[in-house]
């Protein structure tokens, strides 16, 4: 089993690049989807309340997969909010569900009456960072194709108030980027050990070239800069990172938190013991779900 903390990787560029918080917990306190043509999907039951779905993305012009968790007692006469959870680099749609166990933690919190019933969608985003690039139109796939498919095939709350997005590492960056670009599409966003880098690119020079090839492109993509230019009022933001994160992503997460606070955006930051690994993320799964769907 592989996890998103294995973040030494090679993007289709020369050279190797990588993605990817003191002790104790320091807690600090979109455009509507475009219609997608009717598409056929293959649905395979994995667990009693988890399905793996394969559908054709018009934006990418290829089949893509996602796992969907349906809360126990799921009814066709009831609408449920949807949480989209994006995986880390080298991972796939299985990272959150079932590998990290987000479905099992959701079951337990529901049993304890601590969260509202919700659906969890963990989509395949490849190694794209979730934006439109030479790799394909992954941003359009996430905010258009995927959302439209879920809203038209499952009993979702098909509006901003019932739509959340989060992710780990690369997926955390992608979640923040897409939520900040489309603040009227999502009401909550979580960056869990997000691959947000402040000014120190000493270990991520190749990644910088991929994400931000020019200053102008960086202004359009960097969550740190989007926090300054986008109207994010009404969006709730959750940031966290382990104090031993091997990529020091706690620096970018805290810098982003400070920018959000200066803009009076509802946000919180948690700097807790742990590294950039599955042990840290599974330990905090309940915290994440309480943020998205807590009563």
Could you describe the 3D structure shown?
It is globular, with a radius of gyration of 18 Å. The chain starts with 7 loop residues before the first strand and ends with a helix. A hairpin with a 2-residue loop joins β9 and β10. It has about 300 residues and is of the alpha/beta class. Mean pLDDT is about 85; it is low at about 1-40. α2 packs across α10 and α7 (about 225-230) packs parallel to α8. It is about 30% helix and about 25% strand. The strands form three sheets. The chain has a ten-stranded mixed sheet, with helices on both faces.
In total, the number of strands is 14
Separation of the first and last Cα atoms: 33 Å
Structural class: alpha/beta
**Which oligomeric form is depicted?**
single chain
Report the average pLDDT across residues. Answer: 87
Strand neighbour order, sheet with most strands: 3-14-13-12-11-7-8-6-5-4
Envelope shape? globular
pLDDT < 50 stretches: 1-39
Helix % is 25-40%
Total count of helical runs of at least 4 residues: 10
| Largest sheet composition | 10 strands, mixed
The succession of helices and strands, N to C, reads: EEEEEEEHHEEEHEHEHHHEHEHH
* Estimated radius of gyration: 18 Å
Q: How large is the share of residues in beta strands?
A: 15-25%
């Amino acid at each position: 089993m592989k996890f998103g903390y294995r973040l030494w990787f090679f993007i289709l560029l020369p050279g190797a690049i990588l993605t990817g918080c003191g002790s104790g917990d320091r807690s600090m306190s979109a455009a509507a989807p475009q219609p997608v043509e009717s598409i056929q999907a293959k649905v395979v039951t994995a667990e009693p309340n988890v399905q793996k779905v394969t559908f054709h993305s018009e934006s990418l012009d290829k089949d893509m997969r996602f796992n969907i968790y349906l809360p126990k007692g799921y009814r066709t006469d009831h609408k449920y909010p949807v949480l989209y959870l994006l995986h880390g680099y080298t991972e796939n749609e299985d990272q959150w569900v079932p590998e990290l166990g987000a479905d099992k933690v959701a079951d337990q919190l529901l049993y304890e009456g601590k969260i509202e019933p919700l659906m969890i969608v963990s989509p395949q985003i490849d190694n794209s960072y979730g934006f439109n690039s030479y790799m394909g139109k992954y941003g359009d796939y996430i905010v258009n194709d995927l959302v439209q498919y879920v809203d038209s095939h499952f009993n979702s709350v098909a509006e901003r108030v019932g739509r959340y997005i989060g992710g780990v590492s690369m997926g955390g960056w992608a979640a923040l980027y897409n939520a900040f670009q489309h603040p009227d599409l999502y009401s909550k966003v979580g960056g869990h050990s997000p691959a947000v880098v402040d000014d120190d690119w000493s270990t991520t020079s190749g990644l910088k070239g991929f994400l931000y090839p020019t200053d102008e492109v960086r202004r359009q993509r960097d969550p740190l800069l989007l926090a300054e230019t986008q109207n994010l009022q009404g969006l709730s933001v959750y940031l966290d990172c382990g104090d031993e994160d091997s990529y020091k992503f706690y620096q970018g997460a805290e810098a982003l938190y400070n920018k959000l606070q200066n803009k009076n955006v509802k946000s919180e930051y948690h700097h807790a013991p742990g590294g950039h690994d599955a042990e840290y993320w599974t330990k905090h799964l309940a915290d994440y779900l309480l943020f998205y769907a807590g009563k």
